Amino acid sequence: SVGSRQPDTIRLGYPTSSEFGSSLAGYWHFDGSAEDASGNGLDGTESGVGTGFGVFGTPSYLFGSGDHVEVPGIDGIHSGTSTLTMWIRTSSKGDFTYWQAPGLSGVEEAGGGNDIFWGWIDGSGRIGLKVGGGPSAKSPTAIDDGQWHHVALTYRATDGRARVYVDGEMVNQTTTATGGTTTPFSSIGRIEDTGGTTDYFNGQIDEVRSYDRVLTSDEAEDLAEPNGTIRTGWKNDSTALDASQLSVQYSADIPIGTAINVTVHADTSGDGSIDRTSDTVTLEPGRNSVPVEGFGSFDASRYKLVIDLKTVAPTKTPVVYQIGVTEDS
Questions:
Q1: How many domains does one find in the chain?
Q2: pLDDT of residue 266
């Protein structure tokens, strides 16, 4: 999926705060820095974390026993209605007793129920969200397979609606306790415990984002898919074009670390089927035209495009403003 399908642009990548409204409350890349990239000033402090190879080729943080990132004020977001998303990789199972299980953030009130458990991992490796003494929304399958997974957890305090998304798909939802929690917490990479028995996540965490509202299913899907493909409809030209003389004309912004690849299909029979396919061409920054190759010589009046947008990091996005095919004179 692609972040934006506005009529005048094709945009790739993670939606910005303007695209999701003003609800992006915190954003930590964990690429060697715990600074808050959202501009809201919730800078974190690393405590014992290591650095590993991240999901997009940039560094990420390694967590183990005693490791966490201290983020004062994160409970101001995630004590109530909010969404927490991040990429995680772990090979460790947790505990079937939720208040003894590792997790991504939150707090256990020892001996009470004024608590919240963001991303707690059970004894079979499934990940969930639970508030107070209410039920837990939990993934039906394990995420402790040593692979990167995008996890999005949403909670609505008014009615207790909790949802778990894994790799862009909503895998479970339930009604947990309402009202959230008033017990303070300030960590990513562990679930704190007022009784002193803190439970730590074991694995890697990358690209953490906090929202002060519940994201929609489409928005959660967009966050889990940094690349995308657009397929246009057939373009009917008034006259047949010589395929050997075609060029892709475009206006685009292509930052370093991103790419836009285009394949052209031709309908030579006029029946709406794809009869010929070009080689894939890569749009170049700073230019507005590239030749189409691989067609050979034939005439056709119907063409359509497949546009693949790529990025090495979800914070970088190529943008296509205009695109089409023309015959060179």
A1: 2
A2: 93
